[in-house]
Design brief:
single chain; alpha+beta; seven-stranded antiparallel sheet; two-stranded antiparallel ribbon; 18 helices; 13 strands; globular; binds adenosine monophosphate; binds magnesium ion
Length: 490
Amino acid sequence: MPLLDQITITHRYATLPAGFYQFVAPTPLDNLRWVSWNQPLAEQFGFSHGAPESVYLLDALSGTVSHDAFKPLAMKYAGHQFGIYNPDLGDGRGLLLGELVSLEGVVFDLHLKGAGQTPYSRMGDGRAVLRSTIREYLCSEAMAGLGVPTTRALGMMVSDTPVYRERVEQGALLLRLAESHVRFGHFEHFFYTEQYDQLKQLADRVIEWHFPDCENSKKPYLTMFENIVQLTADMIAHWQTKGFAHGVMNTDNMSILGQTFDYGPFGFLDDYEPGYICNHSDYQGRYAFNNQPSIALWNLTALAQALTPLIERVDLDSSLEKFTPRLQSQYSAQMRAKFGLFTKQPEDGAFFSESFDLMETAKVDYTRFFRVLSCLDSDGTSSLVDLFDDRKLVDRNKAVMWLNQYLQRCEKEKLSTSERCEKMREVNPKYILRNYLAQQAIELAEQGDFSLVHTLSDVLKAPFDEQPEYDYLAKLPPDWGKKMAISCSS
Ligand code: AMP
Ligand code: MG
């Protein structure tokens, strides 16, 4: 048993009383095998090289063979789905195996997604298909590469167990790591079932595990909530500047640590389109890209409601009021860095809004726009004008005029062009996980070829680096690959 003996594993969630979870053994899958193993991440926990070749580790981590190191449990939670409260949620296909302690002493939940039915599965089969598992694996690692707070992916396994969605697909497993799997919906469950002692117990544990500084505060629960508000605002600032649409911002998919959580029908903007809806089932556009800030606040308001037995209403309201200013200041700092405009000038407000209007009218590619702007020192200005000219949606002169205005504005910066561009390349990625790339990787993987999954996972770890041999992964999407609306089925 050497491989797991080297790792420190704890079970602090399992010390909570019954009612917070139920112990459930994973249901094994047929002919399970490793597809991906995140060695750089695994090393942070002391896993040695060669770990993925180990059948023993595959059996233990997938729950195929029960192992003393783990106490698999399904967490109970509830949540607002598309604005409507659903009391019947919980880990319906995922299990918390235990917590892994990193070599630096940070505790991470080890969650196995796709492990089979639990008492909270409702009508579901408890499974996750290869398609959605690849999407979560690639995107969570891509977000980490971009510097966005997120859950992580330790590994992925595929099986021959058929899983029935719109078609028959292969069952897969994702090993997910996160400092917490507590969602807004955990608090909502105890509030709406009027289990206020458990609500307090949960808040006490969350403070102990994740916000220990709150213990010194006069109002520890309030300080905890203020932290959650701030972390959520920071996460949304990242989403809005990186062009990331989550797609299912239900309160059961909101982490109390402000980490991007539960990757489903997400999408990155291709053309700059503020109202982009990535979720095929989101008919009203509730979770459209430009609604994410207000939905995050809505979700925090739902969490605030669930905390009313612990925190005074007036305090909750004043914390909620801090959300928008925090988001705006983070967003504005990140957006300034994207443009390379670090000093504040009186004309900036008008300039930014003109820039976004032009990008929208021209349907310019959001990621490419900023990357090309970051490469003016080496590539010159023509590639930027070509990017606008490509679609012939705006007159070429408009793009030239905008660029001149931008270059004039840059003269007010203290940095030289090359210094500015160098800084801009550190925040404007060359590579993002475009939906069409994920789709190509999935189609190959379903035929047994995981090469593109592996290439993407390597390249997206360093999205700001040139990596010229992978230029083909930074190309603009083909027409079929734009604005792909992804189904919720997973
Ligand atoms: P999601 O839309 O993936 O965030 O899931 C919402 C709820 O449905 C959660 O409680 C999940 O655990 C549950 N769920 C999603 N898919 C399945 C499935 N295939 N089997 C059982 N439960 C599921
Ligand atoms: Mg979920």
